[in-house]
């Protein structure tokens, strides 16, 4: 059995002025699921490129995935750290995610800069309130999003990053 491939990544909790969070729906082919069903909802972000700082990754991913160009200094955090293993083809990835916050975003999402793989998946997106997330039967990344999002909504993050699952 081969060792997992370590994949550092940056994700961004994008919040609008009303405190709603932007999430994408993963439409991967799931066993037994109807075609096109959303398996889970997750924030924008992605893998670090060779030698790229985490904040630069977060800024690049926002530009690619939602068409939003921001200065890295606007990002708060890191606020959360998450580690999980996932299968990617024949490999196992050891995902090490660092989360930042971007507040008061007024932006029309533009997915035209997504990678070929992201565009192929035709992932829906929507803005969610913390209450909608907490009350939903959907699956979110991180899994405990309904519990860890409200403290972020209280104001600028000043503490150390929190470990989330």
Largest sheet: 5 strands, mixed
The arrangement of helices and strands along the chain is EEEEHEEHEHHE
The shape, in one word, is globular
Tally of extended strands?
Answer: 8
Structural class: alpha/beta
Contiguous low-pLDDT stretches (5 residues minimum) are none
Span of the ends, CA to CA: 25 Å
Tell me, rounded to a whole number, the average pLDDT: 89
Strand order of the largest sheet: 4-1-6-5-8
Q: Rg, please?
A: 15 Å
Q: Helical proportion? A: 10-25%
Tell me the strand percentage band: 25-35%
Explain this structure.
The structure is a single chain. The protein starts with a strand and ends with a strand. A hairpin with a 2-residue loop joins strand 5 and strand 6. It has 4 helices and 8 strands. By secondary structure, the protein is of the alpha/beta class. Strands 4-1-6-5-8 form a 5-stranded mixed β-sheet, with helices on one face. It has a 3-stranded antiparallel β-sheet with strand order 3-2-7. The longest helix is centred in the middle third of the chain and has 13 residues, at 54-66.
Short overview:
By secondary structure, the chain is of the alpha/beta class. The protein contains four helices and eight strands. It has a five-stranded mixed beta sheet with strand order 4-1-6-5-8, with helices on one face. Strands 3-2-7 form a three-stranded antiparallel beta sheet.
Brief descriptors of the model:
three-stranded antiparallel β-sheet, five-stranded mixed β-sheet, 165 residues, alpha/beta
């Amino acid at each position: 059995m081969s060792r997992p491939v370590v994949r550092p990544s940056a994700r961004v909790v994008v919040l609008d002025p009303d405190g709603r969070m932007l999430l994408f729906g993963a439409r991967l082919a799931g066993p037994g699921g109807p075609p096109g069903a959303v398996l889970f909802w997750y924030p924008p972000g992605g893998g670090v490129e060779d030698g790229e700082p985490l904040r630069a990754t977060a800024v690049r991913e926002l530009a690619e995935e939602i068409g939003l160009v921001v200065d890295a200094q606007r990002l708060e955090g890191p606020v959360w750290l998450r580690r999980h293993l996932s299968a990617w083809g024949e490999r196992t990835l050891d995902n090490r995610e660092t989360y930042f916050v971007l507040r008061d975003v007024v932006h029309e999402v533009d997915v035209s800069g997504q990678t070929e793989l992201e565009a192929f998946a035709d992932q829906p997106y929507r803005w969610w309130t913390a209450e909608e997330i907490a009350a939903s039967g959907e699956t979110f990344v991180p899994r405990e999003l309904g519990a860890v999002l409200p403290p972020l909504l209280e104001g600028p993050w000043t503490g150390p990053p929190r470990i989330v699952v």
